[in-house]
Design brief:
Distance between the termini: 51 Å
CATH architecture: 3-Layer(aba) Sandwich
Strand content: 15-25%
CATH class: Alpha Beta
Helix content: 40-55%
Largest sheet: 5 strands, parallel
CATH topology: Oxidized Rhodanese, domain 1
Number of strands: 9
Number of domains: 1
CATH superfamily: Rhodanese-like domain
């Protein structure tokens, strides 16, 4: 009997776990915990970027989201074509387009972004060497998702996001991420 019981215990534990997952609110609680964990990892990675680029001025995703409706911003997406085809921040232009329009856009506040901020920090630093003042979006598009910022694909709102690679799969809940 004890042999049968020992085989049954793991099965009962699995059933109990599944029953707990199906309980009202359990999925929501798990989702919130997973998002909180992703946010902690994201913040740690963003801090690492900041330590590597202390000379690069930043704006937080929350501050940009609040200021965007009232401000005269140029958003520069420095990600690859493949990443941008999935989604961008509304109104964003490529780094190539920005550089072609430097004179025209000189009096506007320019914010560069990528997936998490490393590539855009490098871009901002390079443009500073050319005498162009810009800000880096701290945490970039990943942080943008955590403050409820909108993404678009061909001008249409979307919840899809290219996150560069598995390591950067840190978007807020409700986003379909690809890499």
């Amino acid at each position: 009997m004890s042999d049968q019981l020992s085989r049954l215990v793991p099965l009962l534990a699995a059933v109990a776990t599944l029953a707990g997952l199906c309980a009202p609110g359990a999925a929501v609680a798990q989702s919130r915990a997973a998002e909180a964990e992703r946010r902690v990892v994201l913040e740690r990675m963003v801090d690492d970027v900041g330590e590597d680029y202390p000379d690069v001025a930043t704006i937080s995703a929350a501050a940009l989201r609040s200021a965007l409706p009232q401000g005269d911003f140029v958003l520069v997406d420095v990600r690859t074509d493949a990443e941008r085809r999935v989604s961008t921040l509304p109104g964003a232009i490529t780094s190539e387009e920005f550089e072609a329009r430097l004179q025209e856009l000189a009096d506007r506040t320019v914010v560069a972004y990528c997936t998490i901020g490393r590539r855009s920090s490098e871009y901002v630093r390079g443009m500073a060497r050319r005498g162009v003042d810009m800000l880096n979006l701290e945490g970039s598009v990943l942080a943008w998702t955590h403050v409820g910022g909108q993404l678009v694909s061909d001008g249409v709102p979307t919840r899809r996001l290219h996150v560069y690679g598995r390591r950067w799969n840190l978007a807020a809940d409700g986003y379909q991420t690809i890499w």
